[in-house]
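INTERNAL AUDIT FORM
Audit reference: QA-55
Scope: verify that the stored structure record matches its stored sequence.
Auditor: D.O.
Record contents follow.
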Amino acid sequence: MARLIALVGLFACAAVAAAQPFPSKPIELVNGFAPGGANDLNARALQVAAERVFGQPLVQTFRQGGGGVVGTAEVASAAPDGYKLLLVSSGELTAAPNLAKTSYTLDAFSFLGRISSKPYALVVKGDAPWSKISEFLKATSEHPGRYTIGTTPTGGMFLTAQYLIRRAGVALTTVPYGGAGPALTGLLGGHIDSVWAPLAAAESHIKAGTLRVLAVSGPGRTSGHADIPSFRELGIDAPQVQWIGVVAPKSVPADRLAFLREGFARITKDAAYVQAAEKLGIEVSYASAEEFEKQVRDEDRAFKALVKDFGLMPK
């Protein structure tokens, strides 16, 4: 009888837990990079409208290391209950696994949606001697290896910087940092000559005049910076842009996935979010879970080819 009562109690508790509304507590949004970078800015913008949409706040936690790999691996192995999500960029999902062995693959995640898209930018100090990209490229060609560029040790910033350096023959010495934020701090402190980073991460410094953009990646010039040339119009191939989206661990229940997907779609249309994103220099570019996953898998195939061409095979 005692055993029967215990079993009834156990099933009752399980039923109550299953009936609890989702979410019933704050949702953790893991950022695999240091504060101050593009992921951080995107998270802050999302937080403005998240509680109104989800009924619970988004709490950003930083798990930096390995160019975003540490935080990504943590979410890949997290409980699939929808309470731990990852704010992710190309570096963690498509670049890092192609450059080194990681504990996860794309198949470890369920896609929720792309939030933003912004080009990468070659940035120098506001008082640097180069006001045009042609001047900077001339200096690097005249003194190969003298000038430095800050990037991450792996991931999207690294691989796209390598693409620029190797494809365009730009003779720069790379200096690794834990993310765009620390790299930009190093640039502002005079420790390096340039940074290859998502444009959004440098936006506030550009507006303040402490940093200067020489050129941007992607198919053409970008909104808000119509005076800044793209590498493409200069005859230099630098097609990649930095997208940022949200993923969850694989096997989150379908109803929770649907709730989260719809929620992030609503957030990107929320007036408070749009205003916050604009203020932070974020170019909102929402894509559904299906569109986002297709983009990521296409990029993964492209990066595989790049790594093979560069001889940067996983160790």
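Auditor finding: record pair retrieved intact. The chain has two domains: 25-117+242-310, 119-234.
Action required: none
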